[in-house]
Amino acid sequence: MKKKLFSQLWIYFAAITFLMMFVVLSVFVGLLFMINHYQLLTPEREGHLFPFYFIIFLSLVIGAALSFFVGKRILQPIGNLRQAMSKVSKGDFTVQLDEQQQMEDVEELYHDFNVMVKELNSIETLRNDFVSTVSHEFKTPIATIKGYVQLLQNDSLSKEERQNYLERMLDGTQQLTHLTDNILKLSKLENQGLGLDFQNFRLDEQIRQVILFLQPKWEQLNLTLDLDLPRTNYFGNEEFLYQVWLNLMDNAIKYSQKDSSIHVHLSNEEDGQIITISDEGIGMSNEVASRIFDKFYQSDTSRKTKGNGLGLALAKQIVELHHGTIKVNSSPNKGSNFKIYLPNRLKTS
């Protein structure tokens, strides 16, 4: 809709100013006419001050009427908005203004205010959830490390027990490091955005490096890897894309059944690359699949599985910064299939 040149508020103020000027001018013109025509100011004439009293009374009535109009139609909506904004500034994000107003501009202003408050409420809820989840994620390994430190103070521990406690403390510190790294990477992506450094590299070799890096994990479960990785050159951010394959492969291994298989296929299409990573693990429901890329979301609320709910959120953000997409198709007890599409990007000079 074409934006109006003059808003209703401007028209109201202009009309009131013009009306007041017109009234004042009319009163003075009328006063001069009456004085000249009826010679009202002659001392000999009885009641010669009555016209002045009438004019003063009339001016007060007109002024009161105009003040009521201005207050009712213009100043009161502004006052209501000021009170509502004061409540919001104190942390009350439940405030909503009545959008049914006589003036269209005030109605639009109230509507925009209501939308803003709803968005602030959503952000505040997200912030509270974020703080709560991060606090929980940090508290668990810290409490574990503290507990083992106390146990290590026992001089009667055997060498094997002491070594076991030290390894568990190391696991706790690695969990904290992993959580911190993911939070910092997410923050870097959100702030850096499309300013990432892109370069040419071998995409197939990068995925192989990730698989070799995770070899101790998949060998421990005796997993079979079905690989189809043709030679592929890609122009993108090598550092962050490595994190995508690392998170996806780590998840595939973590949720796979022993002696099962993981399939990793890379397909070179005309407009981009398609990478699929499939496992034969526990899978997930549609409800879990719809939220799997949310920050800090973990389907295992008991937290028996390692992780902090940031890996897939990080992977999705990296893929989207490459203008690609990542999708998951999964069913309980039938495994999961992650499909990543990375469009080709022309190298710019």
TrEMBL record:
UniProt cross-references to Gene3D superfamilies, sorted A to Z: 1.10.287.130, 6.10.340.10, Histidine kinase-like ATPase, C-terminal domain
Main location class: membrane
Reactions mediated catalytically: ATP + protein L-histidine = ADP + protein N-phospho-L-histidine
First-tier enzyme category under EC: transferase
Pfam families: HAMP (PF00672), HATPase_c (PF02518), HisKA (PF00512)
InterPro entries: HAMP_dom (IPR003660), HATPase_C_sf (IPR036890), HATPase_dom (IPR003594), His_kinase_dom (IPR005467), HisK_dim/P_dom (IPR003661), HisK_dim/P_sf (IPR036097), HssS/ArlS-like (IPR050398), Sig_transdc_His_kin-like_C (IPR004358)
Keywords of this entry: Kinase, Membrane, Phosphoprotein, Transferase, Transmembrane, Transmembrane helix, Two-component regulatory system, Virulence
Annotated compartments: Membrane
A single MF term (Gene Ontology): kinase activity
EC number: 2.7.13.3
TM region positions: 9-35, 50-70
Xref: PROSITE patterns: HAMP (PS50885), HIS_KIN (PS50109)
Domain HAMP: 72-125
Transferase in keyword set: yes
Domain (Histidine kinase) ranges: 133-346
Membrane topology designation: Multi-pass membrane protein
Function: Member of the two-component regulatory system HssS/HssR involved in intracellular heme homeostasis and tempering of staphylococcal virulence. HssS functions as a heme sensor histidine kinase which is autophosphorylated at a histidine residue and transfers its phosphate group to an aspartate residue of HssR. HssR/HssS activates the expression of hrtAB, an efflux pump, in response to extracellular heme, hemin, hemoglobin or blood.
Protein name: Heme sensor protein HssS
